[in-house]
Amino acid sequence: MKLSLWDTAGQETYKSITRSYFRGASGALLVFDISRHSTFISCTQWLQDLRHIAEDGIVVILVGNKTDLTGASSGSNQRQVTQEEAEEWCRMNNVVRYVETSAKSGDGVERAFLEVAERIYRNIETGKYDLNDRRSGVKGFGASGGANNGVPRTVTLGMDDAMRKGGNGWTGGCC
């Protein structure tokens, strides 16, 4: 499985551009900063945009980032959005899962990506997507979307490649 990722930054300035990335999307990580309630509030509009423009039944995972600002190591708890509040928002908005992460330390990041990838893969297995439809964000095996000649495919989800390169798999920061 190949995932194409776009960080749209969630800024109003780029909203018209980011909407073009939603077309054909089969999955999304809707990320907010747990130390800034306003970013959580913005998720409602971003979700509406996603559902209006992206594939029907897009897999959406809500991600609360910056958990590193809530623990003892941070010196203070800067959390403005509780886990319970985010989980309730997911229930009210039919979002499949809530995950908390720290882009700074990498905690939970792999889990968020695996969650969306696994759910997209399940949708592929159940025939939810037309793998030959070029408008779809999901393509069939190979570049042409053709058959696999009866050879079983294996999909491995994880950070193996990044770890083999000697890193911890995470660089930079996020929201």
Automatic annotation (TrEMBL):
GO molecular function: GTP binding; GTPase activity
Matches recorded under CDD domains: Rab (cd00154)
SMART domains: RAB (SM00175), RAS (SM00173), RHO (SM00174)
Highest taxon of source: Eukaryota
Coiled coil, from the record: none
InterPro entries: P-loop_NTPase, Rab_GTPases_membrane_traffic, Small_GTP-bd, Small_GTPase
Stated family: Belongs to the small GTPase superfamily. Rab family.
Cross-referenced PANTHER family: DRAB11-RELATED (PTHR47979)
Name of this protein: Uncharacterized protein
